[in-house]
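Milestone 3.1: sequence recovery, worked example.
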């Protein structure tokens, strides 16, 4: 969108990015089967915030400016969204594993630990359940992977456990991002 619309009317670029946001939120709601959850004002605002941050960085990078990272609280909330969407992304890419649990350890500002089963609708893992794979990466870089600004190789993640499953998780993480 930036290459195609960036030099023209800014209103067209804003409208295109708003359309991307709406399609992402609607697609996630349909894929997760939780339209009520993702249609709440708070959930839609979070998706919109995530998209605006990433698209603003797309513009910054296209102009040769440095990217920015939100404050820790905001980034942590975005990391939770990314972790919560992983089961949906795994299913959307044909990699769902209802029997497998991933531990996502995101470091730095906004970081934390998320334990997720890798298929939508699978029962939530319990805190002491062993993970088939642990993926450790910087929080803001994982969000950039989620938005497809980075490839899994560029993420520079540390993996413990099932390397093939880790590759599936990291590939799925960016699968729902808009590609223009």
């Amino acid at each position: 969108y930036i290459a195609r619309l960036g030099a023209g009317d800014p209103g067209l670029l804003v409208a295109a990015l708003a359309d991307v946001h709406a399609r992402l939120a609607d697609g996630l709601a349909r894929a997760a089967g939780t339209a009520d959850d993702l249609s709440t004002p708070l959930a839609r605002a979070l998706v919109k915030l995530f998209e605006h941050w990433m698209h603003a960085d797309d513009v910054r990078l296209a102009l040769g400016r440095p990217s920015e990272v939100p404050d820790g609280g905001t980034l942590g909330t975005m990391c939770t969204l990314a972790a919560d969407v992983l089961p949906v992304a795994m299913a959307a890419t044909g990699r769902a594993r209802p029997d497998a649990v991933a531990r996502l350890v995101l470091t730095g500002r906004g970081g934390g630990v998320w334990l997720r089963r890798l298929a939508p609708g699978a029962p939530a893992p319990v805190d002491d359940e062993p993970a088939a794979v642990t993926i450790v990466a910087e929080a803001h870089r994982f969000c950039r992977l989620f938005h497809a600004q980075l490839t899994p190789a560029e993420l520079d993640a540390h993996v413990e456990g099932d390397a093939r499953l880790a590759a599936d998780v990291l590939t799925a993480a960016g699968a729902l991002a808009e590609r223009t």
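Residues 10-32 form the longest helix (23 residues). The radius of gyration is 16 Å.
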